[in-house]
Specification:
36% of the residues lie in helices and 12% in strands. The chain is an alpha/beta fold and 298 residues long. Bound molecules: 3-methyl-2-oxobutanoic acid (KIV).
């Protein structure tokens, strides 16, 4: 396959040294030391995996410069960018648009895209929509669920599309679940989570996101499989951690989940800069109106 991308700047990233520099030809340039699903899997037990979300080109560039090996175009897009109340409003067209923007940054990190709500209800639909996200520039897809979506997961993987699972609290089921609750505290849930992760790993998933899983259960799930677990609100026993980037930076518009330790308040800083600029305008004298256009000859 030939992907045309001219002028890709190369950011130094000593952490990405696991594969030799990729070939360059006159049309096609893969970033050096590109993270592949195989490399990501190999990070389990070696180094903690840092994963963050990106929804546009500048954010993907920033994550790339920071050396983030796993970039998720998450359907959290709905809340933090598009102004929806939850992820159930996100469409395939929304996802494709934002995947394209992220992919244009050609980051070294593996770009995974969320299959949105109802886009993988059947095997055929899952395959068609996974292909659409790959055509938009994703390097793999993520979907929520375990054994109940195994036929879809198998079909996606058989088509050669890398797959990342998502277990625990499933945001696309927020209405059925009546909110965002910790999973795995009840024994039946604990056993189901173990069965789910073993099935996803057995099918060939690259990694599994564990969202709001009770920390002891997340740790146990992590030891049960040979693929990385990437936790969010699931304690420190996972192979990596993922955050919604705007939560980390403090630019999320509304609600920030309890498990997030905000490390920056870029919203407050941005607000201050905008107000300073606005106020600076009133310090400049208002231009006096000129003579205006000459009256038309009668
Ligand atoms: O959509 C998203 O950003 C996610 C993360 C919360 C894991 O799925």
């Amino acid at each position: 396959m030939v992907r045309i991308h001219a002028g890709q700047p190369v950011f130094p990233s000593p952490r990405f040294s696991l594969v030799p520099p990729a070939a360059t030809c006159c049309f096609y340039r893969v970033p050096e030391n590109k993270i592949t699903p195989g490399i990501l899997k190999g990070m389990k037990g070696r180094e903690p995996i840092a994963a963050l979300t990106a929804y546009d080109f500048p954010m993907a560039r920033l994550l790339d410069e920071a050396g983030v090996p796993l970039i998720l175009v998450g359907d959290s897009l709905g809340m933090v960018v598009l102004g929806y109340p939850d992820t159930t409003h996100v469409t395939m067209a929304d996802m494709e648009h934002h995947v394209r923007a992220v992919a244009r940054a050609r980051p070294r990190g593996l770009v995974i895209a969320d299959l949105p709500y109802h886009s993988y209800d059947s095997v055929d639909l899952a395959l068609e929509n996974a292909r659409r996200l790959m055509a938009a520039g994703a390097e793999g897809v993520k979907a929520e669920g375990g054994t109940e979506i195994l036929p879809q997961v198998r079909a996606i993987l058989q088509a050669g599309i890398p797959f990342v699972g998502h277990l625990g609290m499933l945001p696309q089921s927020v209405h059925e679940e009546g909110g965002y609750h910790i999973k795995g505290k009840v024994e039946a849930e604990h056993q189901q989570l173990l069965a789910d992760i073993v099935s996803l790993a057995g099918a060939g998933a690259t990694a599994v996101v564990l969202e709001l899983v009770s920390p002891a259960v997340a740790r146990e799930m992590t030891t049960r499989v040979g693929i990385p677990t990437i936790g969010i609100g699931s304690g420190q026993g996972c192979d990596g951690q993922i955050l919604v980037t705007t939560d980390l930076l403090g630019t999320s518009p509304d609600y920030i989940p309890k498990h997030v330790k905000i490390r920056g308040d870029l919203r407050a800083q941005g607000l201050q800069v905008i107000k300073l600029w606005r106020d600076s305008l009133s310090a400049v004298p208002t231009p006096t109106p000129g003579p205006g256009p000459s009256p038309r000859p009668a």
